[in-house]
Amino acid sequence: MSNKKYNYNEEIQRRRTFAIISHPDAGKTTLTEKFLLYGGAIREAGSVKSRRSNKHAVSDWMEIEKQRGISVTSSVLQFNYQDHCINILDTPGHQDFSEDTYRTLIAADSAVMVIDSNKGVEAQTKKLFQVCKMRGIPIFTFINKMDRLGRDPFDLIDDLEEALGIRSYPVDWPIGNGKDFRGVYNRLEKRIELFNEGNHGQSMANIVTGEVTDDAFRLLLGSDLHDKLLEDIELLDMAGDDFDLHKIINGELTPVYFGSALTNFGVEPFLQSFLDITPPPMARKSNLGYIDPEDRNFTGFIFKIQANMDPNHRDRIAFLRICSGQYEKGMTVNHVNMGKKVKLAQPQQFMAQDRVIVESAFSGDIIGLHDPGIFNIGDTLTFDNIPLEYEGIPQFAPEFFMKISTINAMKRKQFLKGLTQLAQEGTIQVYRRPFAGTEELIVGVVGVLQFEVLEYRLTHEYGVEINTQRMPYRFIRWVNDDFDMNKLNLTMDSLVGHDKDDRPVIFFQNEWSIRMIQERNKGLVLRETSLVTL
Ligand code: G4P
Questions:
Q1: Is 93 close to ligand 1, i.e. is its CB under 6 Å away?
Q2: Which domains does the chain have, with CATH numbers?
Q3: 380 and which of 231, 309, 336, 507 could share a cystine (Cβ 3.0–4.6 Å)?
Q4: pTM score, two decimals?
Q5: Which residue is closest in CA terms to ligand 1's atom 14?
Q6: What are the 10-residue block averages of pLDDT along the chain, 534 residues in total?
């Protein structure tokens, strides 16, 4: 046990656990890096980027990653900024988009959505937004790359509403655009913040602040920019939504900020405002009701399992989100789902640069537990001996499917073991359907790279060669329990199967078929996740 004394409630109140979501290239990595810069966790910007190309970086745990130089799994970073202890959950993008990306959002208390000012809302942002929306967590929008001539800010605000269906409240409004992007006007503080470039973004930007009506700003900005700013503010106040904290906390209104992660313009004002508004860890739903983060009984749930992070050991790391109580080194807890006691041997935390052994951790923190194969996604751990279980983690609808079988029938046992373990880790989802008197196995994934991960790992870890055949389906929906599947009226291009828990699912090739089947079958409810609530 550590000797350090903590003020338990203060520790919880200063924690902020959030995910950064975006479409690839919008600037998520750059913004994360700038947060670390402002938090003092790195001295110069550029180190996170170079880590990405470093073949032995924390998350580069598999050959396939090294070959491609991309990160297949998401990671967690912790650092301090002023009085806050920040946990950032990274959500992988590019082709490595997977169900993990969605599941990570279950562990977050809020989300920062990064949008490229030139592109507006993009496809991957939409999907991640939907998961945040389902959970009803606060979503903060950072419109990035304002140093490039992007779309009109009013246009971008409209885009949020049209593409995502969310109302917004611009907290910071940009002054100028592209080369003329000079700063922001903070509507809550009624204050101008002008930036001076900090060494091309390597060091922090200097900020000059003051009243918008101050003549000095008219001089500094020139009358054109100043007039435009006054007009914009008036229009926003007249036609825009009001600031409503309650709606923000419930995810119905997104506060919007403009900036440039590359040049650090607007990064710190955003971080400060975000930390002021976004809540500390809140109560989580369980079978025994809502559990308060300030409850002294240590509890948490596993939301992600990552295999072979350390290439020298074939270990798995299970990521636990602490929901109440305090973790202390060497602690023994109840594994509720297994009905056993487990000692949490040397959990790890992912500080800004390295993995470290955790001495103490609190509600809101994420710890990585060594997993000898005893944890599953959704498992609950508690200190007190009570049958507490946190709400299950849903399975999200995959979008790519293939038939899979083993080449060597003698290896069927290893093949099934491999599939089961990879499904438990959440790399893939497995479905079955009767075929020619036997059973056909279908694998579904959220991002196509997972097919390669699957093939690679079955060959290298389980010694199994496989046959695969891509299928034309792009959608899957779970069927409501009380629907009689014998009466189902299908379209020619759809297919019925069962998931790992034997729940019926339907595979579709396009949205038209989904609508068609919905219309043809009264009482049929089609769901995009296997659990209704989050
Ligand atoms: P991601 O994690 O969301 O995929 O995006 P990342 O931060 O890697 O940024 C993607 C590209 O956009 C990078 O350029 C990055 O430098 C650039 N970028 C990020 N923020 C800004 C910004 O505020 N303004 C401008 N103009 N560019 C920005 P790259 O050329 O792909 O990489 P690099 O050569 O700069 O490393």
A1: yes
A2: 17-75+97-277 (3.40.50.300), 284-382 (2.40.30.10), 400-527 (3.30.70.3280)
A3: 336
A4: 0.86
A5: 25
A6: 73 96 90 85 53 36 42 65 91 69 90 97 91 93 95 96 97 92 90 73 66 77 89 94 96 97 91 96 94 96 76 70 92 94 77 64 91 88 94 85 94 92 84 88 90 88 93 95 92 92 94 95 90 46
